[in-house]
Amino acid sequence: MSPHDGARMDLQSLEGHRRILGIVFIVMNALTLLVALGFGAFGLAIGQFGMQHARADEEAVVTAVLVGVTGCLFVMGLPGIITGIGLLKRRPWSRMLALVLGCLALPNVPLGTALGIYTIWFYTQAGSDQVFE
């Protein structure tokens, strides 16, 4: 076994971690988008059935809150899905975006924390930049 075989095995291992990281980014952020869709559907149901006797100003406030929360959830979920796809396709721009989103996910206990730690661990490994070439 030559020294180059060990380096190739490390790169193969890192290649697998890159794929896993991309899949995890897609799955976790797809769940965020599903929550956004559920929240939006809940808002529509409230609008149809629960706001029949509400005043116009109350209805406007509830609508603004529901649209705002749903929009924020979409804005939070879309970059992660784009990052996951970029990681799976080895796009160079996905490296920095994954690291930024992984760090931003750290306070989101427990899954975001796990994703953030895994992302930081992956990028601290020697050769992690080579799996994007």
SSE topology:
Blueprint: H1 3-50, H2 56-88, H3 93-105, H4 111-124
Give a brief description.
It contains four helices and no strands.
What does this structure look like?
This protein is mostly helical. The protein has one domain (17-123). It has helices spanning 3-50, 56-88, 93-105, 111-124. Helix 3 crosses helix 4. The longest helix is centred in the first third of the chain and has 48 residues, at 3-50. The chain is elongated, with a radius of gyration of 20 Å.
Name the descriptors:
single chain; 133 residues; mainly alpha; 4 helices
Radius of gyration: 20 Å
Number of helices: 4
Largest sheet: none
What is the helix/strand order?
A: HHHH
Dominant shape: elongated
What's the assembly state of these chains? Answer: single chain
Helix fraction by DSSP (H/I, runs of at least 4): over 70%
Distance between the termini: 25 Å
Count of structural domains:
1
